[in-house]
Amino acid sequence: MPSFEKQKYIIDYTLSSLLRRKGKNISLLVVYTFVIFLVASVMFLTNSMKREAALVLTDTPEMVVQRLVAGRHDLIPVSHMDAIKEIRGVQSVKSRLWGYYYDATNGANYTLVVKEDIHDTPGLISVGNGVVRSLLVKENKAIPFKTYDGSYLFLKIKDVFSAESELVSSDLILISEADFRKIFSLPEGMATDLVLTVRNTRELPTIATKIKQLFPDTRPILREEISRTYDAVLDWRGGLLIVILSGAAFAFVILAWDKATGLSAEEKREIGTLKALGWETSDILTMKFWEGVLISSSAFSLGILLAYVHVFFGSFILFESTVKGWSTLYPHFRLTPFINLHHLSSMFFLTVVPYTVTTIIPSWRAATIDPDSVMRA
């Protein structure tokens, strides 16, 4: 009999054998799929969030210079810019004004940013969708801000950012410099931090060292350092979820191991009958191989498909609060589908291959002994 035809008949018999024990096999398939779904969801989510963060950080400054007082970030004199500009390799230096405003009425923190090239009209602000949702306001409505001297400043909403930019603009408020300084009682000549562009990015560490020598109370932060921090935070949150889910995964491993390494009396009688009918030991091992492949590959495919839908179309609702953090203004956004093939193949070999191999070992033991003794057992 040709090899292809033989494999086809063995697979047909394997499917009918699985259907005869459908209750037991379906319950195993459901648990197997659920565990893969959880792990794959975490993997898809952390990989996609890291990719989104990397894309957002491409527009961040090459270097940020902050001033520290007692280990805390403090305002930096704008006059520092003159000395930094003189460092060889520095192309431009700009000051930035930004800060956080706590709204006690809803417990939300807003990020206030001054961008003179986009918005610098006193009395008007541009806000993100998260701010609009939390305050239940619309365009042309005024929002009260309590200033640091206790008075209130009413600013009218000029426009709302588009929903497509919500990942980075949900809690964002663009404000004029005059209103920003009024709310925080910020003195003239002081800024939140300084941002640099350089002619050659390979000189960044050297320029950072020179800035530290000029102003020992400052802390230069490179874009690569910010990127590594984001990666570490997202890896930590993904690892936290894996640890939480490890209990369910461990319970499944015990269940799968017990199922795969032990044959029931019915399965032993089936092997004995097949041997008595003329099946070779290799045929029985092939049948058990296909049984393991069908169950594990079905669970893997279903788990991956469900995880894909959950993360990229279901707003990863199961892990939303853990991954997004503690912020009151959760941005509403849809992740761009991204799959790391290396991680996916690693997961395949760690879930499908071990189960398939463990189904063969007990079958080999039963198939190598006398059929009569197996059927009488």
Structural class: alpha+beta
Strand order of the largest sheet: 5-6-10-7-9-8
Strand content: 15-25%
Q: In oligomeric terms, what are we looking at? A: single chain
Principal-axis shape equals elongated
N- and C-termini, Cα separation: 33 Å
The tally of strands reads 13
SS element count, helices: 13
**What helical percentage do the residues reach?**
55-70%
Mean pLDDT: 81
| Poorly predicted ranges | none
Rounded to the nearest angstrom, the radius of gyration is 31 Å
| SSE order, one letter for each helix or strand | HHEEEHEEEEHEEHEHEEHEHHHHHH
Tell me about the largest β-sheet: 6 strands, mixed
Describe the structure.
- The chain has 377 residues and is an alpha+beta fold.
- Helices cover 56% and strands 17% of the residues.
- It has 13 helices and 13 strands.
- The strands form three sheets. Strands 5-6-10-7-9-8 form a six-stranded mixed β-sheet.
- Strand 8 and strand 9 form a beta hairpin.
- Helix 1 (3-20) crosses helix 10 (281-312) and helix 2 (22-57) runs antiparallel to helix 8.
- The longest helix has 39 residues, at 223-261.
Outline of the structure:
One of its GO terms (biological process) is lipoprotein localization to outer membrane. With 377 residues, this protein is α+β, with helices and mostly antiparallel strands. The chain has helices at residues 3-20, 22-57, 80-85, 129-135, 166-169, 177-184, 204-214, 223-261, 265-276, 281-312, 320-324, 341-367, 371-376, and strands spanning 63-69, 72-74, 76-77, 90-96, 98-103, 108-113, 124-127, 142-146, 152-160, 172-174, 190-191, 193-198, 218-222.
